[in-house]
Amino acid sequence: MTEDVQTILVIEDEMDIADLVAYNLERVELRVLKAHDGQQGLEIALKERPDLIVLDLMLPTLNGLGVLKGLRRDARTQRIPVILLTARAQTEDRIQGLIAGADDYVTKPFSPKELVLRVQAILKRLQVTSSGTEFSAGGFTFDKNALKFYIDNDPIELTSTEFKLLLFLCERANHPQLRNDMLRNVWGYSDDVISRTLDTHMKRLRQKLGTHADRVETIRGVGYRFVSPET
Ligand code: CA
Q1: pLDDT per residue as tens digits for the range 2-61
Q2: How far apart are CA 90 and CA 73, in angstroms?
Q3: Which parts of the chain sit beneath pLDDT 50?
């Protein structure tokens, strides 16, 4: 079953933290690659295409946000989930990171156990997603294996977070979804920082939907609803 071993890339310049994270991930049978600066991290990510990346924000040569933007720009790494390691004071960077397409974050000092749980939650979510095949609602089609999205057969590029948000709404078409349920389903938990970025993600998602943007309704103070004419 060695081909099923999943690879995690840890980009962290503090060696003791990188080693601690690697040690804990290897204990749960994950393969770990390490990079100690941003530029090297981005290069390894493009070459090795890991299953998930743990990314420190404060890095030499290229900071974490720069790495994240680089990953999201390149088709080879666009969909790789990223967990940010951030300092408590870096609230604004954290928000920028989530807006730039990070999937989750942990705040330093963090418990390695918690980080491992977050990593496993994301990997599991991907497996659940890829166990289905295709889902369609009102002209919107989701290829859950490839994480590809189409409107009337035209492909639309979505980030993995946008894909999950839209799929969550479409699978529950015409039923209002609470913000907290969306946060928990897509990120695994809810908190203020993520809640603040939900609307940003939805705004960008609507821009990508173009003339179909009005299919996603905002329900003030409640959440969102996908309007499907079919059901
Ligand atoms: Ca650092």
Answers
A1: 457 999 999 999 999 999 999 999 999 999 999 999 999 999 999 999 999 999 999 999
A2: 23
A3: 1-2, 231
Q: Which domains does the chain have, with CATH numbers?
A: 7-125 (3.40.50.2300), 134-226 (1.10.10.10)
Ligand 1 centroid, distance to 206 Cα (angstroms): 35
How many whole angstroms from 13 Cα to the centroid of ligand 1? 5
* Contacts of 145 by beta carbon, 8 Å cutoff, 6+ apart: 130, 132, 133
Centroid of ligand 1 to alpha carbon of 76 (angstroms): 25
Q: How far is the CA of 61 from the centre of ligand 1 (A)?
A: 11
Rg of the chain over Cα atoms, rounded to whole angstroms, equals 18
Please give the pLDDT value at position 160. 84
| Torsion, CA 95, CA 98, CA 99, CA 103, rounded to 10 | -170
Centre of ligand 1 to C-alpha 64, Å, is 9
